[in-house]
């Protein structure tokens, strides 16, 4: 089986997993994988992640040209923006999961990092989570904000929309996304309680040991 065929099957498999866990709903959200030639496979527009067809997944050039499959998600452009800034990234996950989107709808004093470092795994897999300004879905102006944030962050949060998470593989990006959603749940569960986020020293140690 070719590299492309393997990744098409992988996107179908992870799409079904995310849909089954209620992290994706309806036709919201999109997944992509970067191939060795720089083109990407990305889920088609108006498709449900729970019912993808491997052969119909879009193949798009690094310049955004459709090469094969159905028309791509209208948000494929910000996947390409992430890849442009993160050479090591091979996959991007963007979903509208409930708790993460809820965080994106709150007022925040500091947009540079909108979730506290509640657990070591949130620091290791997600890192700091900047909140980007609101743009309507499909607005190409979003690309500049995504590109800027992706320079230093593997994950970011689109205001009133949801997270974008990248990884060295689709599995890594999906697992990081799941960690982000669980951290968002913890954030809401601990509201009204005195919490003890990780200290700066603890975060620094994690970054040294795990290379973040």
TrEMBL record:
Name the Gene Ontology molecular function terms of this record: aldehyde-lyase activity; metal ion binding
Q: What is the lineage of its organism?
A: Bacteria, Pseudomonadati, Pseudomonadota, Alphaproteobacteria, Hyphomicrobiales
What is the name of this protein?
A: 3-oxo-tetronate 4-phosphate decarboxylase
Does the record carry Nucleus as a key word? no
Give all residue intervals belonging to the Class II aldolase/adducin N-terminal domain.
9-188
Q: What catalytic reaction does the record list?
A: 3-dehydro-4-O-phospho-D-erythronate + H(+) = dihydroxyacetone phosphate + CO2; 3-dehydro-4-O-phospho-L-erythronate + H(+) = dihydroxyacetone phosphate + CO2
Q: Could you say which protein family the record assigns here? A: Belongs to the aldolase class II family. AraD/FucA subfamily.
Q: What is its EC number?
A: 4.1.1.104
């Amino acid at each position: 089986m070719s590299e492309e065929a393997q990744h098409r099957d992988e996107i179908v498999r992870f799409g079904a997993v995310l849909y089954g866990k209620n992290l994706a709903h309806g036709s919201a959200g999109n997944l992509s994988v970067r191939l060795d030639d720089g083109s990407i496979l990305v889920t088609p527009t108006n498709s449900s992640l729970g019912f993808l067809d491997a052969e119909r997944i879009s193949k798009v050039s690094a310049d955004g040209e459709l090469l094969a499959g159905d028309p791509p998600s209208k948000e494929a452009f910000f996947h390409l923006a992430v890849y442009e800034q993160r050479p090591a990234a091979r996959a991007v996950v963007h979903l509208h999961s409930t708790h993460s989107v809820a965080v994106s709808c709150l007022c925040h004093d500091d947009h540079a990092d909108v979730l506290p470092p509640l657990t070591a795994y949130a620091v290791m897999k997600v890192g700091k989570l900047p909140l980007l300004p609101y743009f309507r879905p499909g607005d190409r102006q979003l690309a500049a904000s995504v590109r800027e944030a992706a320079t230093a962050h593997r994950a970011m949060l689109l205001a009133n929309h949801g997270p974008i998470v990248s990884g060295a593989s689709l599995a890594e990006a999906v697992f990081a996304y799941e960690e982000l959603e669980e951290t968002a749940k913890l954030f809401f569960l601990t509201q009204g309680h005195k919490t003890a986020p990780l200290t700066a020293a603890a975060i620094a140690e994690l970054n040294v040991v795990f290379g973040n």
